[in-house]
Design a protein that fits this description.
binds zinc ion; two-stranded antiparallel sheet; disordered N terminus; Reverse transcriptase zinc-binding domain-containing protein; 50% helix; 2 domains; 4% strand; globular; mainly alpha; RVT-Znf; single chain
């Protein structure tokens, strides 16, 4: 987790500048304080836990990012009954990546959200190139994204909505 706030200087070999003490030297006390200040966040904190979303949605996201939700492809691998085709488009096998960023239904929903909130920096047309839920989620909420916390929350709520819609159709 600490890596986010440690800046490696390529020119001076093996020198780490720690910005939570005036001297720039790392101390355990400053690291401890930094955690309380909320300055040190792991990627999972930024993608999941430090968002504006209900706890259920956060837990769902935490599982989805690790490819641990029970989509049809995973059930199939375990030899368990499953819905097979994606219940939203009824065209392709359901998987995490398909459901959350490749399905035509999902892309349509995202495009509506993008238009409604004026999120012009987002472009769904390249999403088919991304391979895992974790990769896609990270790219939606990485350091360069404007309003990172809001985007992490929005990504979660749209995906949570899709998951609930999918469940309503399966069960
Ligand atoms: Zn689909």
């Amino acid at each position: 987790a600490l890596v986010n706030d440690v800046h490696l200087d390529a020119l001076s070999e093996d020198t780490i500048v720690w910005k939570h003490t005036t001297s720039g030297h790392y101390t355990a006390a400053s690291a401890y304080k930094a955690q309380f200040l909320g300055l040190v966040l792991s990627p999972m904190d930024q993608m999941v836990w430090k968002t504006w979303a209900p706890p259920k949605a956060k837990f769902f996201t935490w599982l989805a990012i690790q490819d641990r939700i029970w989509t049809a492809d995973r059930l199939q691998k375990c030899g368990w009954p499953n819905c097979g085709l994606c219940t939203l488009c009824k065209r392709e096998q359901e998987s995490g990546p398909h459901l959350f960023f490749k399905c035509r239904f999902t892309i349509r929903l995202w495009n509506l959200v993008i238009a409604k909130f004026g999120l012009h920096h987002m472009d769904t047309s390249m999403w088919h190139l991304e391979s895992s839920v974790k990769e896609w989620w990270t790219n939606r909420t990485s350091a360069g994204v404007p309003n990172r916390k809001a985007m992490a929350s929005l990504t979660m709520l749209v995906s949570w909505t899709i998951w609930n819609e999918r469940n309503a159709r399966v069960f």
